Fold Pimeloyl-ACP methyl ester carboxylesterase.
Amino acid sequence: MEEIDIAVTGGKLRVVSWPGDGPVVLAVHGITANALSWTSVARELRGRVHLIAPDLRGRAGSAHLPGPFGMAAHIADLIAVSDHFGVERPALVGHSMGAFVVAVTAAAHDVGPVLMVDGGIALPVPPGIDIDTALHAVIGPAMRRLSMTFDDETAYLDYFRQNPALGDHWTPDLAAYIRRDFTGTGSSCNIEAIRADAHDMLTNPIPAPHPLLWAPRGLMDEPRGLYQHDQLTGVDAELIPDVNHYTILQGAGARRVADRIISLTT
């Protein structure tokens, strides 16, 4: 694994690269996540592709980047990453909000195959709902932590451990992912970036005719996940059993995600 800074509008975007012998795949994380959410998938890929995951604008190593925020900014940043690596039609994979990012990028540019992981399909939110209200309803503690302060790294990790979707599936990779987000007092996430992305994701969803891997359990390991079967009529959707919104990527589901990446790119 290596870290690279890539020139984008307003400064440098931090990117994590797991080199490999196969095609380039750009991997996009969720709304309050960071590039290291892809570590488990990278390990399962075993160098069969070159996996490249940015810290999205307003998060972790890219937290310093200014607005404007939202899907258009992410599209431009992904194209800048693709250009940096000399790839004209990169394969794209996105988790959660990142699945919406790859879907809108594919709609705007000629890219390679696209895979969505527990995201990318319009969520059922009431019209006109306040964005912060929607964020608290959909992502819960991931949103609450953005306004919280923590005494130290141990307290920050403990906050995540309290979520059964994470604490019951704790790994060193998960701890490293969480540490990447910690500033010394709280989360690196820029709340204005989060709001702009949520606005675009929740109010302007686009048709996403791409394969979807989805989790039966939710962000608190509750038995109802982001999606239900009746929401996925006509979608090329594969249910990954016994995973939640996080472990589909960072736990038991990582191998299946890696296998689908390989099948789409070879």
User: Anything to note?
Assistant: The chain has a mean pLDDT of 94. Strands lie at 2-8, 11-18, 24-28, 50-54, 91-95, 114-117, 212-214, 237-239. Residues 48 and 262 are 8 Å apart (CA to CA). The chain has one domain: 2-123+191-265.
